[in-house]
## 1
Amino acid sequence: MNLNPILVTEPVGNFRRRAADAMRGRVSMLYLVGLIYISCLTIPTAVIEGLNGTFNKLAEVMQGISTTMDVQKWYAENADALQATSNFSALYGILVTGTFALGLTIVHLAVIRRQEATSLSLFDGFAQLPKAVAIYVLTRIMIFLWTLLFVVPGVIAYYRYSLVYYIVIDNPQIGTLQAIRMSGDLMRGNKMKRFVLDLSFIPWCIPPVVIIVTILSFFSPSALESGGNALFALYMFIYVLVAVLFSFVLNYRGVAAADFYQKVGNTD
């Protein structure tokens, strides 16, 4: 597919409106997609941390059973095991974050284009696992390097590379570096508009945050001191709560971003 970059000038509200129209009748499917996406990215690593004894040690500190010195000693005695679980979590993140991001983008593009998609479409990114991982690693490295200069260059870099997954979906034959260059070309002059589009979803994030803070305020600190299992249970509860409350916003923003890509690349 040939991309014909244009400068987007229309109000960001138009993207939200078209996204809402496209999502009509598919909200339940998208909600499930969001739950699966957030859960797959967060819960496995949380479980790994729960299995390595970290929560038990934190609970002991909260109960006054262990001191900071005890924790440092415990970390030293279990350094190899803790490093192994840390490495596994990092490897898992590298392998699945970009892959699920590609799958989520596939779903959002299908929705805005009124094409067929199911919750299982989220896993379609695994068909291009090597490329998805390469995109994730390379773009994160470049964003990190720009961030070393200052926060603003890092944010600019994030939006410069924000269209890579869309480009790969529409042009599966091209390489990762070419997709990254094409994203930079398409976003030239459009980064601020996309930034404003993202900012427009902040009001949608406020209610979930208020709900989470309100629910957590009912938890008694003494309940968390009952042991590592209670601390781990709260940790998992927060992850599940985030998945439940932010799933809609995740997809609403994603479908709007997919529409933005179509306008920028003149592909609609």
Note: Residues 59 and 228 are 5 Å apart (CA to CA).
## 2
Amino acid sequence: MVAAASGKLPVVQALVKAGANVNARTTKGDTPLMAAVLSGNVAIIKLLLSEGADKTIANAQGMTAADVARKAKNDALVKLLAGAPASEAKTGTVNPKVIEAKVDAAADAFKTGNYDRAAELFKDVVRLDSKHAMAWHFLGQSLAKTGNFNDSRNAYLTSIDIQPSGQLVDRNQEMLTKLPYEYKVHHILVKTKGEAQEIIEQLKLGESYGNLAKEKSLDSGSKDKSGDLGWVSLGVLVKPFGDAVASLRKAAFTIEPIQTQFGWHVILLEDYRIKPLSN
């Protein structure tokens, strides 16, 4: 496909019709769009864009199709590539092939350890498809690799919001527990699931968490402090409790009762922060 894109329009049209990948890459990372830019064939460039060619893909030298046009000093093609892809401008929606190409490019960047580039591309994916749970997950991983833990955490939580059940949730929760945070946690401990569920319903109606903790919690060490357990690391918490804490947004409480060997818990995450360095 890359070689054909530098040739004649009918050949490329036939390949596209046959289902050829418009974002196929050579061993050097060059794409059909780059080849068409080099040949200066505007008709082929527009065809490729309309079929989902991704103009943001970079080759092994880090050059995109627009960079190729700039190097060739072809201002008309630079201007063309600076606009929206024809597929988006024509339909008002994003061609799925564009998203697929960006996911593939982001995955390649992640696999090769280029985490900044992977994060940039996964951000592009979720801008185009905000419900792409897997892209949010890998955005979280990419950001964590670059040390951007706050945005990483938000990405994992967004992925869970979109897809709240299944294997991806387990993967998101596992990644959340690996982030270098400690948490300011409150809990209300009761004997039964029914009691915990009743407390959750009261909280949803606006009841004070602190008052409910003082009134109902069985944990004598924390109930008079509004259930406050202080700043804790996940490693000191039993797994169901710790997993629940890691999956909460700031100032949120668990909407399902959490069971441990101590009873049933309604957990509130007051805040979180990067763990202080040990002396």
Note: Residues 96-111 form the longest helix (16 residues).
## 3
Amino acid sequence: MEVAPLKGADGDTSGLIYLVHDVTAFREMEGELRRANEERQSAYEELQTINEEMQSSNEELETTNEELQSANEELQTTNEELQSTNEELETTNEELQSTNEELETTNEELQSTNEELETMNEELQSSNEELETMNDELRHRTLELDDVNTFLETILTTIGMAVLVIDRRQQVRVWNGQAKEMWGLTPQEAEGQHVLSLDIGLPLERLRSQLRGVLSGDTDREQVVLEATNRRGRSFRCRVTMLSFGAGSLDGADGSRDGAGSKDGAGSKDGAVSPDGAGGVIMMMEAGGD
């Protein structure tokens, strides 16, 4: 409703004019407009809130995207490292396989060598048993030989003559105590020497032909009387008797002495004796004679 003054011609207010308008529709529209404005304001605020949330979500997505990109780069790096490690493992596997094959080959060779060693061990054990048997026999024969040597030494000592035993090489094998007493040489000095090279007071060179005759088997016995000088410088006539004994009696009995030759090389000079001759010579010397 509107109130307006009513004025006359002279400009004085003569009354009031009341204007009544129907504003129901206007009020409704105004209320609707107010509600719409409120709804718009609420929607704007919601949109602003949504925009802020979307901006925050966008920032989070960007952060997540950066993290994913960084993680992807790390995964690529890790993949490359794993690929490199895989290649190294393949190479190592090939090397290990090659080493395994070499070890198998070595194992087979060692097994073969072990079998050969076992065979050799069995052969050596068998040889050792044979050697022990031979050693026992040798020990037994050595004891027997010691007994024979003792018996022979007793005989040669009690016989009262200087006795020499000479082998096929004309080396002295036995030099008894009477020979030491007569000529002054000990058994250690005489044994192993060529008999014709001995430095004693007897002209042994004059016995060369007789000695070779007995050794060659031309005769079984030779006897010679020579002028001699004993170890005290006394001259006397010496009867030398040479007797042969069986072939092979001294061969191999002492291989080291048979094969060594005389100490002064005289053995090669007169050692060539027929294999059909005597095994050696027993030379006996005594004072006296015609």
Note: Confidence is low (pLDDT under 50) at residues 251-275.
